[in-house]
Amino acid sequence: MKMASDASRIAITTHIKPDGDAIGSTTGLYHFLKAYGCRSLKIVLPSMYPDNLAFISAGTPSEDVIVYENTPDKAIDTIRNCDLVFCLDFNAFNRTEYLETALEQSPAAKILIDHHLHPDRSKFDEVFSEIEISSASEVLFHILMNCPGINDDAALLPRECANALYSGMTTDTNNFRNSTYPSTLVMASKLIAAGVDRDAIVEKVMHSYRENRLKLLGLLLKDRMTITGNGGACMVLDKETMLKYDVKEGDTEGFVNIPLDVADIRLSVFIKEDQGKARVSVRSKKGTSANKCATRYFHGGGHENASGGKILFPDDIPGMDQAMGYGVKCIEEFLSEQ
Ligand SMILES: [Mn+2]
Q1: Contact 295, 282 (CB under 8 A)
Q2: What are the backbone angles phi and psi of residue 307, rounded to the nearest 5°?
Q3: 174-188, pLDDT tens digit by residue?
Q4: What integer pLDDT is reported at residue 1 of this predicted model?
Q5: What kind of fold does domain 212-336 have according to CATH?
Q6: How many angstroms separate the alpha carbon of residue 36 from the centre of ligand 1?
Q7: Is the dihedral of CA 53, 173, 304, 333 positive or negative?
Q8: Residue 315 half-sphere exposure, CB side, CA atoms within 13 Å?
Q9: How many Cα atoms within 13 Å fall on the side-chain side of residue 46?
Q10: DSSP 8-class letter at 109
Q11: What's the gap in Å between 136 CA and the centre of ligand 1?
Q12: What's the CA-to-centroid distance between 135 and ligand 1, angstroms?
C-alpha cells in the first residue's frame, strides 16, 4: 500500500485472453486504489475480454482500460511510463505476450499478485503468490483485508471491488467445484455478508451464454471427442466449425471440464484452433497432473489440475487435421506412465 500511495502513475495488467479471474482481480484492484486516493490509474490488457465478462468491468471508466490489440502504442507507453505496475493472475511476463518486452524494460516497481505454479520471482520487487488458493482475486482479497483502514472489514471495500473479486473467484473455482479452500469460503462468506449479490453474479457468470454454445457442445460431444482406453478424453474444435456456429471468445469456457463428469476419466484435453497454432486446455482430477501433461506435451503449464498450452504448426504437427490423433497419442502416453 505504501508503494501504491507513493506512486504517481500506476498500471494494472494481466495475462493475454483475460478470463474472469484476470478481469475480476484487475477491476477489483482498480476500484480499491481509486477509492483510496490513487489518481493516475490504468488497466492495461494485452487483449480484450469476452463479452460475457463485460459486466465485471462495466463500472470502470473506459478511458482507464487500455487494450493492446486496440491501441498498442498507448498500452506500451503506459507500461513504460508508470512508476508502479501490478501484475495479476500470471506468473511470468511472457504470459502477457505483447507486453512482455515493455514489462521487462519498464523502470517501474513491479508487484506480482498470483496463484500459478513457479512464479518468476526475480522479475518482481514484491511477490504475493499462493498456490493453495482459488484465484488471484482471492489472493488480492486477503491482501486488501490486511490493508490499513480496512482491518478485515469487507464492508469497507468499494462495491465495484467486492463484486469484481467475487466474480473472479466464482469463475476460477467454477462456482466452488474446484480449487476451493477454507480461505475461499471465508472470502465468500465475508463478501456475501458485506452485500455482494451472489445470485446475480452466478447468473451472469454461468447462466448467460448464447444458444449456439449448447448446440456446439452437442456436436463436440457427439462427433469431436475421443475417449482413450486409459482414462483420457480429447475434444477438438477447428476454425470451420467455429465459423459455422459463430463461436466467440468465451463461448467454449468450461467445455474441457465436462468429460471429467465421467467416473473413469481423469484427464481431459480440449484443443481449439487459433492463428497458426492450436490452444490447448488441460484439466485433471486429483492424483493426475494437468500441469505435467501441459508442460511435457503442450509448451504450457499453470495449476496442478487446470493448465493450458499450445500445439504449434508445423513444429508439432502440420495442422488441425492431425490435432485429434496427436492429442490422443499424447494423452495415452502420459496416462500410461502414471
Ligand atoms: Mn486465475
Answers
A1: no
A2: -135, 175
A3: 999 999 999 999 999
A4: 65
A5: Diaminopimelate Epimerase; Chain A, domain 1 (3.10.310)
A6: 25
A7: negative
A8: 9
A9: 22
A10: E
A11: 5
A12: 5
Distance 243 CA to ligand 1 centre (A): 28
Is the sign of the CA dihedral 288, 293, 173, 235 positive or negative? Answer: negative
Q: Which three cell numbers stand for residue 183?
A: 480461505
Range list for CATH 3.10.310.30 in the chain: 212-336
The C-alpha atoms of residue 237 and residue 57 are separated, in whole angstroms, by 29
Cα(283) to ligand 1 centroid in Å equals: 14
Q: Does domain 2-206 have CATH number 3.30.1490.20?
A: no
Distance in angstroms (rounded) separating the CA atoms of residues 113 and 30: 13
Cell matching residue 2: 505504501
Residue 3 — very low, low, confident or very high, per pLDDT cuts 50/70/90?
confident
Per residue in 117-143, pLDDT tens? 999 999 999 999 999 999 999 999 999
Rounded to the nearest angstrom, the distance between the alpha carbon of 115 and the centre of ligand 1 is 7
Judged by phi (left if over 0) then psi (alpha if -120 to 50, else beta), residue 53 lies in: alpha
Query: What pLDDT is stored for residue 296 in this prediction?
Result: 98
Interval between CA 28 and ligand 1 midpoint (Å): 14
What number of CA atoms fall less than 13 Å from residue 101's CA on the CB side?
A: 5
Q: Cα dist. 35→38, 121, 267 in Å?
A: 7, 29, 43
Angle in degrees, CA 296, 242, 259, rounded to 5: 50
What separation in Å is there between the alpha carbon of 89 and the centre of ligand 1?
Answer: 5
Asked whether the CA dihedral 78, 79, 81, 84 is positive or negative, the reply is: positive
Q: Which three-class secondary structure state does DSSP give residue 98?
A: helix
CATH 3.90.1640.10 in the chain is located at 2-206
